[in-house]
Amino acid sequence: MPNPGTKLPMWDHQQDVVPRLLQSHFILIWEPGTGKTLPLLRAAQLRGGRTLYLCPAALRSQVAREAQLFGCFEKHTIQVIQFGKDIVAAKAKLVVCSYDHAVAEKIWKQLFKFEWDSLILDEAHFLKNTASKRSRAVYGAKINSPGALFRRAGRVWCATGTPIVNNPADLWPHISRLFPEILVELDLKRKDQFIEKFCHVKQTPYGLQILGGRNLPLLKTAIKDIVSRVLKSDVLDMPPLLVTQLWVPPRDLDLSDIPEEALQEVMDLLRNDEVDKLERMAPALATLRRRIGLAKAGHIAEIVSEELRQTTGKILIFYQHTDVAKEMQESLAAKNKDVQSVIYSGGLSTTKRDAIIKQFITDPKTRVMIAQIQAAGVGLNLQCADRVILAEPAWTPAANEQAIARAYRGGQTKKVWASYVLLESSIDESVTSAVIRKSRIIEGAIG
Hints:
The protein is an alpha/beta fold. It has 18 helices and 15 strands. The chain has helices spanning 12-23, 37-47, 60-69, 99-103, 105-113, 133-139, 172-178, 180-186, 191-198, 216-223, 232-235, 260-271, 286-310, 322-335, 350-362, 373-376, 397-404, 427-443; strands at 26-30, 51-55, 78-80, 94-98, 116-122, 153-159, 199-204, 207-213, 227-230, 241-248, 314-319, 340-344, 366-372, 385-390, 416-423. The strands form three sheets. It has a seven-stranded parallel sheet with strand order 3-4-2-5-6-1-9. A six-stranded parallel sheet has the order 10-15-14-11-13-12, sandwiched between helices. A two-stranded antiparallel ribbon has the order 7-8. The two termini are 38 Å apart.
């Protein structure tokens, strides 16, 4: 294991950004797979002192391992917060904590007690909503809230491949807290002013409704000095990525007890191009989404079985509902006696998750991983797969793009083929098609 100070090979774009990180707060808008973790940890090592690394729960173990592998921190100086009752070690140089644990009062008070030389906010789009508990824990309820973790850090570095999940308003928490000078230059003091400046809006009986972005060249100019934008195509000699859509017939889809008013609201949102509000309908349509997934499961098993016979590569399937995953796994097992599959879900322990990933990467007979998109959609390195199937696509463009990037990232040597699976002539087809269109619009705001 390398010792801290060992200079592992770094790509040019990784080396170039380290001095900028050391200067002040900064945002890495790096496409998944371009290697953002190494420069963040290297900058923390060079800055010295204590570093707090906040990230989704699924990434904690990976960050700790990479901190050692990169030679930035020794194992005995790293603490991973695993439970809500953990005590933050006073001697730890790198504390890795999930956003969910950082919200817990006992953990938050301990984190706030320390002064941090560096605060790393990985997958920073998790903080896009200032009303969420995560955002309030890190950024405070208001711009001037004294009780905010970021105020305890000398440097704050945000990293995300998808800073805008829905519209430019998603940038507000980061800009308003970390870069208030930009608001001064734009003569903006409040969030509503920021939204009106950079979003198409209309007033409705239910409040302000965001329809899309505007003044995007001005926004890009305003943030150009506080962000680094890196695409895989700019810095990596990447193989091609093919993204397609697969339609399957709506076999055995029962809509008899689905709330008609909820279905109608979804169709209204689609007609008004308000894709960013689809997620709020997820609870009301949970039964519908599950049944759509089950209706597709058998078809997907047939498609995957045929591909397993024709190719030698590994396949990554993303799902949302547990019974959909089980249905696909059972169907695959019945059709492919010599091929094993594994299910990776959010309810597994860290040890079990690590074991499943290792099995998928190293075992030649384990050719299929059925991964819950909420648990495996960010951070994981699964370049052993060259086929990605979104069995149950998310209703936010960023989540789907992040999922595809588990396979299509630095280190991938094969052409990657990713497919959205749509239930033909159904609300699933309408929603997923709208989400795909939305992803192209979002890109206009950042590059």
